[in-house]
Amino acid sequence: LQEWAFQTLSLSARIRGQRDVLGKVVTAMMTVATGQKRRTIYDAKNDADASDLPGTLVRGEGSPASTDIAVNEAYDGAGATYEFFRQIYDRNSIDDRGLRLDSTVHFGQQYDNAFWNGNQMVYGDGDGQIFQRFTKCIDVIGHELTHGITQYEAGLRYQGESGALNESMSDVFGSLVKQWSLKQTADKADWLIGQGLLTPSIKGVALRSMKAPGTAYNDPMLGKDPQPAHTRDMYKGSQDNGGVHINSGIPNYAFYLAATAIGGNAWEKAGKIWYLALRDRLRATSNFSRAAYHTIAIAGELYSNDSNEQRAVKEAWKRAGVEP
Ligand code: ASN
Ligand code: ZN
Which positions fall inside the Peptidase M4 C-terminal domain (predicted)? Predict the structure, then answer.
């Protein structure tokens, strides 16, 4: 494709008058062929009809910054997440084939969430009472985009333990995107998800804590952070698809323990182990035990059996109450 693009480009230079048009076509083709990021940001303009996605196109790849901060945050956050996966794990976008990264901002009215809808990322503005705009936090953007990667790879079913693993993978790589962009080693990172997203009137520091699940907030409006850090405290009810955002505290804590025991940049070793598990080993119905089994096996393959790295991963799952 690159060779073909080069040939068409030189040909186009010889066609007087057509040069610009052909040049643009070739540039677009080169972008796909060489694996560069393609971002598009849409504005839902707080339309009451939530089915009206994606909304109006407001910024495309390479176009100048908007006057709308949410547009620029969604654009920059998607860019940082793309670059993280490209530079650290050699992954070319959500599908590893350069899929365009679509995001919609100003979704709904005072909408208190962000999500991946199977095709794109969607961000609410928050109600201003509990939550601020969801594009504010780069780890939240990394979280939503990772749901796309999980969909194309392990396909972890969004229910029970596989759903909690799906959620945890999004927290792990969301946090790693943030740590990588801030150049923070594991011991310096805050291990919070959505730090600064809650308004100052709420008693809490973030949506979740990977380092200390269950301590992110405790407020009359929100209740207490319900996340467990150990299987003995696992939520067994039916809310939240069987606690996908609750029990994710357990694998989150295991990742935190493994990454800090290994030391250095969390994305280099612990992140690589988790990424390969997500890409090559986990499946739709995998549970915590399978995640432990595969990450321990991958640590052995990458760093040898009984290496510090493998022992750190084993010990981490054990402390979270998960048997491989
Ligand atoms: N923000 C949530 C998430 O990405 C939305 C949801 O419940 N799916 O997990
Ligand atoms: Zn999620």
Answer: 154-322
Q: Does the pLDDT at position 226 exceed 60?
A: yes
Mean pLDDT score of the chain = 94
CA of 73 from ligand 2 middle (Å) equals 19
Whether residues 206 and 249 fall in one domain:
yes
Catalytic residue from among 144, 153, 161, 309: 144
Catalytic residue from among 143, 147, 245, 294: 245
Tokens of 176: 């790693």
19: pLDDT strictly greater than 60:
no
Ligand positioned closest to the Cα atom of 115 = 1
List Cα–Cα distances, 114 to 108, 215, 303, 311, in angstroms.
11, 22, 37, 36
Q: Which domain holds residue 265?
A: 160-319
Burial of 279 (0-12, 13-18, 19+ CB in 10 A): middle
- Asked if 130 and 173 sit in the same domain, the reply is no
Pair (218, 95) in one structural domain: no
Residue 281 lies in a domain: yes
Q: Provide ipTM, 2 decimals.
A: 0.95
